Amino acid sequence: MGTEVQWLASLVGAQGPKGDTGAAGAKGDKGDTGSAGSQGEKGDQGDKGDTGDVGPAGEAGAAGEIGPAGPGVPVAGALHYILSKASTSDYDTAWADVNDLVDWDRIASMISTAIANSGGGGTDPGDGGTDPGDGGDNGGDTGDLLVTRWTANGLSSPITPNGALSTAMSIDTNGDGTAPTANGSTLILNRGSYLAGKPLVFSLATTADDTTTQTPSVFRVGIKGILAVDTGSVVDTSEWQIGQFTFSTHWSGSALRVTYGRNGNGELIDSDDGTVDLGNSHFYEAEWTNDASAAGGTMRFYVDGVQLGSDKPTSMKLRLSDNMETDVNASGGNAGGGQDNMSVEYLEISYKA
Questions:
Q1: Cβ-defined contacts of 156-163 (< 8 Å, 24+)
Q2: SS3 94
Q3: Which of 152, 194, 276, 346 could lock 335 by a disulfide, CB 3.0 to 4.6 Å apart?
């Protein structure tokens, strides 16, 4: 075996020494990165538009004067009506309508009397006229009237007053008269049912002269509601054989009437016929004003503050005692002469000493 190995070894020949490891080839260079394209320029921003100027504010209109208080609605109402028409420039219509509504003569009388009471209305500037205390001739100064109102609240009784007089009004019924009813807060008096209050104390000056003692400068009675188209007592303020002021509807159904007087003597004064609207809700008034320079005074009638017809002269002076009874739909506690279905919202009595 050894000889065979040796024979084979001789065929192969001796193994030469191991050759050196060849050197590693050099790394190729990295290619250059291409240049980035240039960015386009940003467009300029447009200029902001200017803000428009704010228009100047319109001037505020002057405040209207406040109209007179109380039932004298036409003056304040007329001013309001004119202003409402101003926006349409319909001034001609406004003034035409206002002249139909406003009692300019009454306003002029009140202004003249106020001037007289200030000391400039008479021949003697020191006393302002013949008798500044009673409001002057033919129309007293109604600016300081003492006003009392009784407002109905359905069938609630008594009705407490709001104003100068302190006597409450109570619902009453005569005998077999028809009991009153109500429509909400409105009191409906039927023939035989009425309101009564006593005594009404007016505290007027007394004198030894029966023709002038306890005479008011102004006395006014008003009732808001529906008066029937029928004759009958509406409001009666009286003391038997002393003084009387009975406000009623005329038998014609188209006029108002006052029976007034003193010491058992009386006089009937009617409004102009055909001038009153009965059967609908209105504020009806009758007013007596003393004439200090004469034996009597002046009676005026109003519906919703607008005078009915002309002034009515009276031949004597009204007398108001401190023991007067006031009835609505009755006279002296007798409801037989009242109305049927009279609607009453409120009663007002005003006076000036």
A1: 159/195
A2: helix
A3: 194
pLDDT tens for 266-318 read: 999 999 987 789 999 999 999 999 999 999 999 999 999 999 999 999 999 99
Q: Are 295 and 211 in contact (CB under 8 A)?
A: yes
Closest among 136, 134, 133, 80 to 111, alpha carbons compared? 136
Looking at residue 111, what is its pLDDT? 59
Which parts of the chain sit beneath pLDDT 70? 1-104, 106-143
In DSSP notation, 253-277 reads: SS-EEEEEEETTEEEEEEPPTT---
- Residue whose C-alpha is closest to residue 240's, from 264, 213, 276, 214: 264
Listed by start position, the domains of the chain span 144-352
Q: Which residues contact 41 (CB under 8 A, 6 or more apart)?
A: none
